[in-house]
Amino acid sequence: MASMGEQNGVVSTRPVMANNRNFADFEPAVKKPKRNKFAFACAILASLTSILLGYDIGVMSGAIIYIQEDLKINDVQKEILMGILNVYCLVGSCAAGRTSDWVGRRYTIVLAGAIFFLGALLMGFATSYAFLMVGRFVAGIGVGYALMIAPVYTAEVSPASSRGFLTSFPEVFINGGILLGYVSNYAFSKLPTDLGWRFMLGIGAIPSVLLAVGVLAMPESPRWLVMQGRLGEAKKVLDKTSDSIEEAQLRLSEIKEAAGIPQECTDDVVNVQKRSHGEGVWKELLLYPTPAVRHVLICGIGIHFFQQASGIDAVVLYSPTIFEKAGITSSDGKLLATVAVGFVKTITILIATFLLDRIGRRPLLLSSIIGMVASLTTLGFSLTIIDHSHEKIPWAIGLCITMVLAYVALFSIGMGPITWVYSSEIFPLRLRAQGASMGVAVNRVTSGVISMTFISLYEAISIGGAFFLFAGIATVATLFFYMFYPETQGKTLEEMEGLFGKFLGWREEAKKLKMKKTIEVNGDGTSNGQIQLGNTTTK
């Protein structure tokens, strides 16, 4: 048998028997590995923090109707109240990067839940507009912490084979939170005016308590552990969250390299530079960035800016107002139509989670933003017709409702989840926490500006004109994404930096990386050429 196996070009049992181990090792490249259940559970628990923002967005769209009636506030106070939480998020998201580097990703999530719990209680017991604004300030800090830390933790704990799927979970739970907020609006709308909106806002304290308790069952991020020199603990976490022992070893090796720890160092605890707590990172990000870091920063901030500047929060927060402009006048009708928006958003984001690691980030992002341009343009057209008509036009009303639903579906299938996936995976390890916090800061500021000026905007240029403006911004975003954004599907977090740095020349780098990986796979897999020989002779 041994001599038979040595003969070149002869189909025998030797290649099969001798290469069983090699074929098993090569199997993940041919057949997609099963989802890692432990990493899946960790991603769900971490991403639950995002439900806090979603719930607040959804519930405020309906609660504001009753708040305006109860507290007798004007339109300017109304739009400030609606959007100010996004500005308050800045405090939390800017502090979260340093906090997570100092105390760890896990305890930062617990802190986010505790702060939001306090904010929800303050809003629920508010007796005046000023009191309500204080509650929104506290809740905003909690949301800022949650938005920054959830995608970072999930990206760092996920294996490369399912990182897109798992890192999209924050956006899934934002959408789930929005739907819960819409349902809460409808459920409490029958209560007396002064009680209904307080229940709508105060009930948000419940998920934050469950979150803070559940997170304690999660492990710490392996990348954060390595940055603290706790290699033994990091190895245990990687063994649990990787698809194979070999992948766990590879991930540990790459993280050690990124952290500046020698590969031959195998102690459970080692000394690392103090900059692992975030010192010097801001200089590297903003003052003296390399071409690669500059490219990463522009892409990370750009995708967050365009996600919000294309008008998603205007549609989600002001959907009752949009439906009223479209001709739906009853409160129940507006709230039910809004629930439909939340339902469509949630269903499409769930579909998107399964496509991210199959189709890739770039195709989904481009198809999503192109569809958003078309739906925003059509929505602006239908609202303009309704606005200039003195009688109801059924087809225009139907087109308006359809385009709102189409817009949120197209957003949720690509632009929504990919923003969080992409921005959390492209930053190098040493810059990841602070880079992600900058992206969240831009995201929330842009959202705050849109949501705090939407009423004034459509009063100035008409509601149809507002959506034509959003369509124009989305068109610019399409060109920006097409030119500057490389595909990151299947790349390890430590490979990302090699794709960036040449802006328009990233395609050449992607080809080189693909060729290098092909050579490495052939070199490892053939082991004297036997795997390729086996595949060739059996066909």
Task: Describe the 3D structure.
With 539 residues, this protein is mainly α. The protein has 27 helices and no strands. The chain has helices at residues 2-6, 13-18, 20-30, 37-47, 50-71, 75-103, 105-124, 129-157, 163-167, 169-188, 193-202, 205-215, 222-227, 231-241, 245-259, 281-287, 291-309, 312-317, 319-326, 331-359, 361-387, 394-425, 432-461, 463-484, 496-499, 506-526, 530-538. Helix 7 packs antiparallel against helix 12, helix 14 packs across helix 15 and helix 19 packs across helix 20 (331-359). It is globular and about 75 Å long. This is Major facilitator superfamily (MFS) profile domain-containing protein. GO terms for molecular function: carbohydrate:proton symporter activity. It is a multi-pass membrane protein. Residues 231-258 form a coiled coil. Residues 42-489 form the Major facilitator superfamily (MFS) profile domain.
List how many beta strands DSSP finds: 0
What structural category do the secondary elements indicate? mainly alpha
Q: What do the pLDDT scores average to?
A: 80
Proportion of strand residues: under 5%
Q: What's the story with the biggest beta sheet?
A: none
Oligomer: single chain
- Which percent bin holds the helix content? over 70%
The coarse silhouette is globular
Distance between the termini: 22 Å
List the total number of helices: 27
Give the SSE string. Answer: HHHHHHHHHHHHHHHHHHHHHHHHHHH
Residue stretches low in confidence (pLDDT < 50, at least 5 long) are 1-30, 525-539
Our Rg estimate from Cα atoms comes to 25 Å
Family: Belongs to the major facilitator superfamily. Sugar transporter (TC 2.A.1.1) family.
Membrane topology: Multi-pass membrane protein
Keywords: Coiled coil, Membrane, Sugar transport, Symport, Transmembrane, Transmembrane helix, Transport
Domain Major facilitator superfamily (MFS) profile: 42-489
